[in-house]
UniProtKB/TrEMBL annotation:
The chain crosses the membrane at residues 113-130, 136-159, 171-190, 196-220, 418-437, 457-477, 489-506, 512-537, 549-571, 577-601. This is GH12573. It comes from the Eukaryota. Keywords: Membrane, Transmembrane, Transmembrane helix. It comes from Drosophila grimshawi (Hawaiian fruit fly).
Amino acid sequence: MTPQEKKVYGDTTQPLPRRDRGYYNRRDKSDLGEHFVAPDGGWAWLVCVAAGLSNLSLYPCLQQFGFLFRERLISLGMSSSQVTAIINTNPAVSACTGLLNGPMFRRFTFRQVAMAGSLLCFTGIALTAFCETFAGYIFAYAILYGFGMGISVSASSLAINTYFQQKRRRAAGFSWTITGLGPIFLPYLVTFLQSVYAVQGTVLIFAANSLHSFVSALIYQPVRYHVAPTLMQVEQQQQQQQQQLEPQAEILCVHCAQQQKREPGGIFSSQYLCQDDDAQRPGYEIIEPGTPMLSRANDGWYGSNLSLNRSTGRKRFRTVSSCKDLEHTQRLHSPIDEEDQQQDTEREFFRPNNFRREREESNLESRLGCTCAEQRALYASHQAALLERNKNDDTQMAETLAKMSFRQKLVTFFDLDLLRDVTFVNLVAGLTVINFGELNFSILTPFILTDFGFDTSQITVAMSLMAGMDITMRFLVPFITEKMTWDNRVFFLIGVVGIALGRTIVAGTRSFAVILSCFVWIGLCKGVRTIFWPLIIPGYVPLNRLPGASGLQLLISGLFTLICGPLVGLVRDRYNYSVTLHCLDALSFVAAALWCLEALLRRHRSKRIS
């Protein structure tokens, strides 16, 4: 505290010390330190709810694309290939933003990224309401809306995976349960809004609704604000506070510190309240100075009767010097009579402690001198050494980067070295193929049921029933699997294979009752898949590499969707939706087979090694 602040603040009005937010790496926002422990509660549950609400406000235009734009795109004269291209370009662009996840989350926090994504989504949806050409839909709906949704969903997912570790399954279940509320009531809401505001007004309403994700992004505070410090961090903070809490002007030597601690006034300046349990501790003033009183008089124990009724045997001392200032003289005691050790101790005990206190301080002051200048110089040299060390670290890092080739810089910047891991590549390939099939089925469901000959009311009932089973399973799965030790990939594959089997039956029937039963089954399996889908990559890679790993997965998924998306439209134009469903199911079965094959090979290899 500066001398000017000393004049303003008293002992009870000093400002609180700055709260230490823990480990912070300004160059890499995703680096949380080696000893980071996720909160797994408290503010983390607000982040979980905010992530669910953010996705709930962003997904409607994607989930209800068929309901919103089916008739409008037909009236504009667009072919099935163009419609499929628009549908697949949006998630492709969203996934391609994954390439930016690594460098983006190192430079910005997930709150900043989520806010930017929310604004991009609003802009894209609002412009989509006025589009009338294929190029306009590609720019507004596919690129702007897709890019904004990609970075916003990535930020929400990273926030949940950062705030939760032990309760990650439950948090993902709650978040995606909130997100799953949309498909239950949105078909009815879209039908009602279109009858009142037409397609353009309905899309503008959804654009305004997407701004709720901006408010949700404000909840994504940096996790270091809510992390309980570990024992090692507490010790480090105490050491740092002890060394750096006071500025250079406040550094005092022992001599000056003793001068500040001394209370004004003499031994008879006020009434002292003595410490009966410790005779070595000084008393406390309890009345105003100028009223000399005995400190232990008439208290029933140290009263005057004790000193009058017994002979203490105190003898006179012949001293060479009795001066209180003992800086350059030595006090010599020549007792007339010898006292035993017990009487010396007792005499020392009954002596008022304020005499002893002042005498000890006087002796201490006589041996010490002011060394503030030396200590300040030492502190300045220590701070200069720290600054020099930081500069050297920055210089070494810059030299290391300068020696790297362009290829090495590219690999480091985008975390491409993760592709050397065979297991990671297999996981990414499986997720890419499975998500491609799930996305196309979800978006094309209204078109498929329309092609099968069902009307709008039947389609609405079927989709709402599937969404209801989906959200029910999302809520129950975390509690059902909490005590089960199976890997997340096992649960994920159960859901994926179940969905593929249900779609296979749907492709071969035209009975509305059978389709409703299949949609119930697909909804249950979809809930299982949705819960464990965002846990596959975080369960395999460390937290500090999660942005880069998830970004690579999204990038590969986006490129695959961008390349293979138009093929879905070609298959539909050449054959029908039944063949299209069989092709999507075949992709899911192939991905599940690859994962199972890798698990068997690794188990066999581990047995051979053991």
